[in-house]
Specification:
The chain is of the alpha/beta class and 351 residues long. 66% of the residues lie in helices and 6% in strands. It has 13 helices and 4 strands. The longest helix is centred in the middle third of the chain and has 31 residues, at 154-184. The radius of gyration is 27 Å and the shape is elongated. The two termini are 27 Å apart.
Length: 351
């Protein structure tokens, strides 16, 4: 390792730590994002919801309990059930008395409407069977089939998208900073007058960004296991190359933004806008097929979407051929190398 490279590496590490905005978007923003939305996605399945019930027949309780979709909380009177819903202790309740079925839910929780419809469709045949003393002639068994054999929770699916978003922010904002702000402050021009090797500068920057990517990855996985009890297991043979190549590819996006927008402030604003677009249109929260057809094209050209696909493949949470895995990683790697070479020619020309 040359002395010049060591000096640049040390200087850029200190600069990255001092730049609070860049440090926030590279490391802290994905963690904040994970914590905020993690609580939304880690406890959304019906089995984790408590259902308040008041039945005048024991058979309703036993039959509903067999479904295993809710944690049943039995009440001795309707008034206490309504009080708990108003106070936010439970979100959904059902009363079956004298052949009347009444569903109660909290209006403050819009997401409960889907569970209420599921409860309605589940409860109707139970009540009708008990009232009519009907015999069961047909039993329907429902079996879930996973493409990969791994049961991936909504939180784990979102968490891998957050990692992809952190790689995007880390790579893109670093290049906007280096070739935007540094250019405006004539830092690069002064370095070139000293006869510094542009490749040493670029390699030191790339190395620090890769280290930041792995630090962000480690913190996200640690918090996911500590707070949200995530049990996802990555194949590190597939994960490590993806982290490296995706980070390089995202750096190319930052270089492209700076090249198109000469003003550093405009480039920084454009990067922030693109970051927001990637959050909502890259399939981080949910599969792309859930999006309206007329905006799916945004996801299919989004680099974050393909980065998330690579991570989910590395966790055996998504099907992908090995050939496609190699192609996507190769595209990220090629874009990163071409971007760095282009930046050395465009922004680091000696005077």
């Amino acid at each position: 390792m040359s002395r010049q490279f060591s000096s640049f590496l040390k200087a850029y590490i200190l600069e990255s730590l001092r730049n609070s905005v860049e440090l926030f978007f590279s490391v802290l923003f994905p963690i904040v994002f994970l914590v905020i939305f993690g609580f939304m996605f880690s406890d959304t399945s019906p089995s984790n919801k408590t259902l308040g019930v008041f039945f005048d027949r024991e058979i309703y309780y036993s039959e509903l309990e067999k479904l295993g979709n809710w944690k049943l909380k039995s009440y001795s009177d309707t008034e206490q059930l309504l009080t708990d819903i108003k106070n936010g202790k439970i979100s959904l309740g059902v009363v079956v008395k004298d052949e009347n079925v009444i569903l109660y839910y909290s209006r403050s929780e819009v997401s409960i409407l889907g569970d209420m419809k599921i409860l309605q469709s589940s409860l109707v045949p139970i009540v009708e069977k008990a009232l009519n003393s009907a015999k069961q002639y047909l039993a329907i068994n429902v079996s879930q089939i996973s493409q990969t054999g791994i049961d991936v929770s909504e939180f784990d699916y979102m968490m891998m998208g957050v990692i992809a978003l952190s790689l995007f922010s880390n790579g893109m904002f670093s290049m906007v900073t280096v070739f935007g702000r540094y250019k405006k402050q004539n830092v690069l021009k002064r370095l070139m007058t000293t006869g510094a090797d542009p490749m040493n500068i670029l390699v030191s920057i790339s190395f620090v960004r890769l280290v930041m990517s792995f630090i962000s990855l480690a913190m996200i996985l640690f918090i996911s296991k500590l707070i949200f009890r995530s049990n996802i297991q990555f194949n590190w043979f597939f994960l490590v190359p993806s982290i490296v190549f995706v980070t390089l590819g995202m750096m190319a996006i930052g270089i492209l933004i700076v090249a198109l927008l000469k003003n550093p402030n405009a480039a920084s604003n454009a990067a922030s806008v693109m970051n927001v677009i990637m959050v909502f249109f890259s399939g981080i929260y949910f599969p792309v097929r859930f999006m309206p057809p007329y905006i799916r094209w945004i996801a299919h050209i989004s680099p974050v979407k393909y980065a998330a696909d690579l991570l989910r493949f590395a966790a055996n949470a998504q099907q992908m051929s090995f050939a496609f895995y190699l192609i996507v990683n190769s595209v990220f790697f090629a874009c990163g190398i071409i971007g760095l070479i282009f930046s050395s020619k465009m922004f680091m020309k000696p005077e």
